[in-house]
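Many introductory courses stop at the sequence. We go one step further.
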Amino acid sequence: MTDKYDVGYRKPPKHSRFKPGQSGNSAGRPKKYKSLISVLEEPVTMNVKGKKREVTAIEASLRKTAQSALEGQLSAIKRFIRYCDEANLLVDRNRPATHGVFRVPIDPDNYMGRKFTEAERKEIDWINSTLNKPPPEEPPTEKQALIRRVASEKHFIESVGRKMTIFELIQQKLRHRALVERHEPSHAYFEKLLTRTTIDLDPPNVGFLVVPAQIPIWLSPIRIENAETGEEVHVPGPDDPRFDRKTQFRLNS
């Protein structure tokens, strides 16, 4: 007597069934990610300057945006320039300052009758060299550093005869679309961008606030006395082994 087996719903053919111990998912369970941002940190392979390289998904997305921008897609141009703005690349750092605070340097010639030692003169030179400097820039975040690295990557352009950064090339593409091709949306965005990145007018009443030099205590002619004993407090100078550059502008109680 033959065993009749009807093939149908929930009855697959016997020869195509999974054998005992055989998994239906040979590749295993899909990888779990801790968060959505961790997906963007996964490495992917892409061509960078003609060579295959593993980069993060974030960098791959940034480079894809740059490629679309170089092809003339206005939405990609806007997106890439917005990234560059986040990385502070749109600020013209070569523009001279027109206002601020100017601290007068210490002039040893103003201390007539006093002979400065070599150590004291070196300390005065150090004080003067640290004046009137812009505040240090905060270190960039990982995202800002990535944007700067990709935007500043240089490629040789035969028609120009020199290397140009990706950011320069995208700016050139925007200018060409706006001014040569007369693409109205590109022209409108280009004009709007210029108003933010180019300062055409200077305020009429600008200038520097002149502040006297901050004199270190060891150079000050003022005598400092101990309130309890009336004895003069000796402030160590650059020739004294106890001299501390960090505290030379203030007297510890």
